[in-house]
Design brief:
With 87 residues, the chain is mostly helical. The protein has a domain at 26-84. The chain is 71% helix and 0% strand. Helix 2 runs antiparallel to helix 3.
């Protein structure tokens, strides 16, 4: 099995469709998805760093940091919309 496959096991759609589906979720759920992705990249960062892949680890860490920032922005959007959401 590949370490980094080119597709998502069990998902038959296009990545553009997946991105649109994630973006169309309630913003708190999109924020959670972004955070989960960032958390996974941090785990990869730690693994790559321990294997001496410092340049790769640095780039992955930077990506995760920016995703955490995006998560915070998305959660702020959720807080704006939340009072107007149907229960």
């Amino acid at each position: 099995m590949e370490n980094h496959p080119r597709d998502i096991k069990g998902y038959e759609g296009k990545l553009e469709e997946l991105a649109k589906s994630v973006g169309n979720m309630a913003y708190d759920q999109t924020a959670l998805f972004i955070k989960t992705l960032a958390d996974d990249l941090v785990q990869q960062t730690n693994s790559d760093y321990s294997l001496g892949k410092e340049q790769l680890a640095t780039e992955l860490y930077e990506t995760a940091s920016r995703l955490y920032y995006a998560r915070n922005s998305m959660y702020s959007a959720w807080k704006i919309c939340e009072p107007h959401m149907k229960k």
